[in-house]
Design a protein that fits this description.
The complex is a heterodimer of chains A (about 675) and B (about 180). Chain A is built from 20 helices and 10 strands. Chain A has about 675 residues and is an alpha+beta fold. In chain A, strand 2 and strand 3 form a beta hairpin. Classes of the chains: A alpha+beta (about 675), B alpha/beta (about 180).
Chain lengths: ~675, ~180
């Protein structure tokens, strides 16, 4: 019964989405306030209905209702409860419902928080958001209905892919989707602005918080995914340039560019056509990611079960949304008025440089991901593109980006003095030099790229700190004054510093583990010891255990340093009989500045020992710590009072001519 | 901004969408061959494997060249790399085919440091009779390798008979084994 309620709720959600996409749009065109107002209740109703549907599917997973095909195919009664719940979105159909849920959530959020938007803009944003909802709900109901029954019901399910039975992966898709789908809202804002035919600084201010929400979620989602790959796939790699990883990286890069170009719209009333285009493309790249993962045009470990019919349907959605909005863009963009001017050397100039580099990087990843497919379709020869391509193209683009990142926030708006800004960064230059010297002393000059990388990391981090110290005039005015200044700074400025510093930390982690890893691979018998980077690993025992839905062989390592016990590691090799798959569970001990990483391999042929892999990964936890710091930076920026609801529109505007919607009152960032 | 620049994104996007639509739908209509990334039709099917000679990965001096593919019944040629995630996923299947079913497997270590490839095999097991090092990926280009892993079925005459792109999963093994058994006769 409950699955049928879920199915019915989805149908109702579709009807509400249709209402939401038509009535407010017509109302806005005709100036009919009542019709425009329909968008709000429709958005709430849609959210309610999709929540009911999602809840119904989750319920079917929790009680293991194998009469539902989707549950029978992806769950098992012996699975731990956490993975029964995460199984809801661990498959194509369920993940689509999650996607639609997020979409409805963002629609309702605009309806709820959009009190300060001009009514016509709000109606149009809701309408465009409704249209995306219609597309995805139709797609779900038409090709990917998760509520299909199975008669007779099987006695037990076929189990979720064991690689996906993991806490990191349980929460990775929801954040990733929150990011992907969050960009639907910036897309809706862009489309609505094009329909209105007007983009002003206020638009830049309204679209920024939503971009921040989406960006922060996507950052967290990608970080969780790479963390999972690091500990689950069992050899300490954290990024593989897999097409599906690239599919999440492209919207992130474009979204990061959007985050920065929206500042220029807000502050200088410039870069408007470019920002609108970025908003469209960011969501288009999110949609394309969905298409690549689910249509089967590319091969990847992440790919869902593929079905050409679904591929065509998503392609249709992609063409309708992206193609439609780009045509709208081509029609309307030339009529958008260009606003303020600025010199190349200025804060805005630095943001343009940021945008150039980030969009080039996005294009690089796009080409690397799609080139084999395009060449194949054109009947050309088959080529392979892997990490060697991306390391040679993507990494060099990041170097000038990071180099400029520390300088940008120190430049004044409109026109700035580059030499002066560099002069104020002397402390950052000195500290970076110290870090590079330390790296030379500790790890030698074998890898020049590693030295460049660590210099970039230090530059980003110390640049951000020095910039903040400059702002609060630390050590130049009495400390109490500095603290007062720090309190008075807008949250947006703090957000910038924190996020930029976080990126520096993350880069240090990436460089550290890529360049300075120590590893040892050998056959060990119980009682043997091996030394890696000064740590002694002793294999104490190997035993076989039977847990829930798998059988495991678990090793016990004691790690010693100078005779003192540092950690005990329990790496496992698991066998999932139902799914007929084996997984390696690495054991990791982290000291924050490095990870000790142990993997238990196969038993040797004579049966007396095991192949083991032991690693010392310097700085690797910083990748994810830095990512979390970046997310925190995004959230701090989001709490800026300029974005807060209920702040009077005219605040701080005295003396300025009131413009449509009000210009951002505070100099942020 | 000029009209042309504004129109550029639309044009590029529709070109890309056209490629997607072709791969997904029209390719089958026009050429009769469906786009299947894990079963890419190779231009080399039923033709001799390309000429190549690769140095040995292991100390045993057993490198891989086109001459090694002639004679000795049907065999599999697997292209792998230690940096490739799906390769690790398919490895147990390769081990099973070599050890339990006695299939002859040759390896091409693709764009990888030899010491990394060696470690990969030391840890996960070594199913290969011969392993050649393709450091710059030149031989793989001649084979038409799209991405690692790929597995080719080569018959006793050194002709390529089948190509599998992507990891070889347990469910693909039956097909491979059947083909090797049939060709081996």
């Amino acid at each position: 019964m409950i699955p049928e309620i879920g199915h019915y709720a989805l149908v109702l959600a579709l009807l509400l989405a249709i209402v939401q996409s038509v009535m407010p749009l017509v109302g806005a065109a005709r100036g009919n306030v009542a019709w425009m107002e329909v968008g709000r209740p429709a958005a709430y109703g849609q959210l309610l209905m999709v929540t009911v549907a999602f809840g119904a599917l989750m319920w079917a997973y929790i009680v293991s209702d194998f009469s539902v095909l989707n549950v029978a195919e992806n769950s098992h009664s012996l699975k731990p409860m956490l993975y029964k719940i995460s199984g809801t979105w661990g498959n194509h159909e369920g993940s689509l419902i999650l996607w639609v849920l997020m979409l409805a959530l963002f629609g309702a959020a605009v309806a709820w928080f959009g009190g300060n938007l001009p009514p016509t803009l709000k109606a149009r944003v809701l309408a465009v958001q409704g249209m995306i909802g219609v597309g995805f709900l139709l797609f779900t109901l038409g090709t990917s209905n998760p509520f299909i029954r199975l008669d007779p019901a099987p006695l037990d399910g076929q189990d979720l892919n064991p690689l996906l039975q993991d806490p990191g992966l349980a929460f990775h898709p929801p954040f990733l989707y929150l990011g992907y789908v969050g960009f639907s809202l910036t897309f809706s804002f862009a489309a609505a602005a094009l329909i209105e035919g007007r983009v002003d600084p206020a638009w830049g201010r309204w679209v920024r918080p939503w971009t921040l929400v989406a960006w922060a979620s996507l950052t967290l989602g990608i970080a969780l995914g790479s963390w999972w790959a690091y500990y689950e796939l069992g050899w300490g790699g954290w990024w593989f340039w897999d097409p599906v990883e690239n599919a999440s990286l492209m919207p992130w890069l474009a979204g990061t560019a959007l985050l920065h170009s929206a500042i220029v719209v807000e502050k200088r009333d410039a870069l408007k056509t470019w920002t609108i285009l970025l908003a469209i493309l960011t969501f288009a790249l999110s949609l394309m990611g969905t298409f690549l993962v689910r249509s089967g045009v590319l091969t990847s470990v992440h790919a869902f079960a593929v079905d050409p019919q679904r591929g065509i349907a998503i392609l249709f959605l992609l063409v309708l949304a992206t193609g439609g909005s780009l045509i709208l863009y081509a029609m309307r963009a030339p009529s958008l008025k260009t606003g303020g001017l600025f010199a190349p050397v200025s804060r805005e100039g630095a943001l343009v440089l940021n945008n150039l580099l980030l969009s080039t990087a996005t294009a690089t990843v796009l080409i690397g991901t799609l080139y084999p497919l395009v060449l194949d379709a054109m009947g050309g020869s088959k080529i392979s593109v892997g990490p060697p391509f991306f390391n040679a193209t993507f990494v060099p683009l990041m170097i000038p980006l990071v180099a400029a990142m520390a300088v940008g926030p120190l430049l004044a708006g409109k026109r700035a003095d580059l030499a002066g800004a560099l002069g104020r960064l002397w402390a950052a230059i000195a500290l970076t030099a110290v870090v590079v010297l330390w790296a030379l002393w500790a790890h030698g000059a074998d890898s020049v790229l590693a030295l460049v990388g660590i210099a970039m990391a230090a530059w980003a981090f110390f640049g951000a700190i020095v910039e903040m110290a400059e702002r609060i005039r630390l050590f130049r005015v009495p400390l109490a004054d500095s603290i007062a200044r720090a309190r008075g700074l807008p949250h947006g400025a703090w957000g910038t510093t924190i996020a930029h510093a976080g990126l520096g930390v993350a880069i240090a982690g990436m460089v550290g583990t890529s360049a300075w890893v120590s590893e040892d691979i050998r056959v060990m018998r119980v009682g043997d010891t091996a030394t890696v980077a000064g740590y002694e690993f002793r294999l104490d025992k190997v035993e076989e255990l039977r847990v829930d839905n798998y059988i495991t062989e678990q090793g016990t390592f004691t790690v010693l340093r100078d005779g003192a016990v540092i950690a005990t590691l329990y790496p496992e090799q698991r066998w999932y009989p139902v799914a007929r798959m084996e997984t390696t569970e690495a054991a990791i001990h982290t000291t924050f500045v490095s990870d000790l990483y142990a993997v238990l391999g196969d038993r040797t042929e004579d049966g007396t020992g095991h192949t083991v892999r032991l690693y010392h990964h310097p700085l690797v936890p910083w990748i994810w710590f830095g990512s979390v710091v970046m997310v925190i930076g995004g959230l701090v920026s989001l709490s800026d009072r300029r974005f807060r609801i209920g702040v009077p529109q005219g605040r701080g505007q005295s003396g300025k001519a009131p413009s449509a919607g009000g210009i951002a009152p505070q100099p942020a960032e | 901004m000029s009209r042309v620049v504004i129109l550029l994104p639309v044009v590029l996007f529709f070109a890309l969408a056209g490629v997607f639509a072709y791969a997904l739908y029209f390719k089958e209509l026009f050429t009769g061959v469906a786009h299947n990334p894990s079963e890419l039709p190779s231009a080399l099917i039923d033709r001799p494997a390309p000429e190549f000679a690769l140095p040995a990965l292991r100390d045993d001096g057993q490198g891989l060249s086109s001459a090694d593919l002639k004679g000795g019944g049907a065999k599999l040629v697997n292209v792998f790399a230690s940096w490739c995630a799906p390769c690790r996923i398919e490895h147990p299947q390769l081990m099973e085919m070599a050890k339990a079913h006695g299939v002859t497997l040759h390896g091409i270590a693709y764009k990888d440091k030899p010491e990394d490839s060696r470690r990969f095999l030391e840890v996960l097991g070594d199913p290969f009779t011969r392993v050649g090092v393709d450091r710059d990926g030149r031989a793989a280009i001649d084979w038409g390798v799209y991405g690692v892993p790929e597995t080719y079925v080569v018959d006793a005459d050194g002709h390529i008979r089948y190509r599998h792109v992507g990891p070889l999963m347990p469910q693909d093994m039956e097909k491979m084994l059947g083909m090797v058994r049939e060709l081996g006769r």
